[in-house]
Amino acid sequence: MCSILVNPKRSLSTPLLYLSSSATESNSSSSSSSSISSDAAEDNPYCYSRQFDLNDVKMLGGLSKSYKLLDVLSGHVGAISCLALCGEFVLSASQGKDIIVWQQPDLRLFTKFGTGEGSVKALVTVGNKVFTAHQDTRIRVWKVSRRSENVFRLLNTLPTTKDYLGKCMKQSNYVQIRRHHKKLWIEHADSISCLAVENGFIYSGSWDKTLKVWRLSDLKCLESIKAHDDAINGLIAKNGIVYSASADGKIKVWGKDLNNKNSNSNSNSSCHRLEGVLEGHKDVSMNAALVVVENGNERVYGGASDGYLMGWEREREKEGELWKLVVEIKAHQLSILCLSLMGDILCSGSADKSICLWRKDGLRGEISKVGIIRGHEGPIKCLQASPNCVGGGFLLYSGSLDKTLRVWWVSKDIKDTEEL
């Protein structure tokens, strides 16, 4: 993930924005990017971060409860669809085609970019670049302009022109998407709904039911997988494994096929293989996924459109690998749209306008509700937990169809169910 930092020699009113190319990459969909690692935060649960010091953050009341609303950020022309954390900055994007960069710790609007490029569905940051997925079936690559410190310049669009021209002359590179209509296999045929990034690759999931793999070094599309029987709603990439959540009610697990000769070439041949299928409820869309790996145990949590939060644990057997359902809870009255995790606290956002807080059991995989946060006036589309510690807690960002981004403080020691 990228780190966007502020030059310490400049005041917060006139920050210098730059993206560190040396920052390490990590998962985009449910993990945060930051100049302070989540591992460091977990080692010291009461550590303080300069940019997130509660004394510097605009407060809306005291911290009398285990979680509290800090601020409401307005400025988007459309419903907020996705979030990403980049060091001392928060990036939020909307269905109104605009992307806003918010500056910590005063949470002011720093700059906007991307207007007019199509409704934004997903957002990830890698190295010194920002990748945005759009309803117009394109992925756009942005970079901070050298001429102006707060202007993002459009660097490229995926698939790139070079990639397109290299394949458009061969008929075998075209696939049927509708009657009497074909497209190159490197092109998405419908809205791109989600992105994930890891180990030099970026993954895109679409309503066209396909999962595509792109190489970051040259932005080439390496692979297109007919992954699901319905739209793909969420992607997670972790430890070389890709997890895709779909409206067909399944979360599928994709591993690298090391025996495939074309695994490192620009080919339509599949270099990922299906390793597992996690079945949700029949005829119920799976909207979001979250992956947790602890002490060798691997668990996948999924949020469904019937309001259920489900969890599976991988069981490694001598003759293969099986997934066991360990969590099945009616978490919300309406559809779960997003999930985020910080330490032992799992957060679920829903169309019922609430955020539920859950504490997970690291040994048994079970979860218990410890809080309900209310305040949004519309469905909650995206959540992002920051690994930066603040007064024994963490910051949680929530984006909603009510066009606002809300900032919450959540205690890491929360135990009993409370409601804000």
From TrEMBL:
Lipid metabolism as UniProt keyword: no
Entry keywords, A to Z: WD repeat
Protein name, per record: Protein JINGUBANG
PROSITE patterns: WD_REPEATS_2 (PS50082), WD_REPEATS_REGION (PS50294)
InterPro entries documented for this protein: JINGUBANG-like, WD40/YVTN_repeat-like_dom_sf, WD40_repeat_dom_sf, WD40_rpt
Keyword set includes Cytoplasm: no
WD repeat spans: 185-224, 373-408
Pfam families on file: WD40 (PF00400)
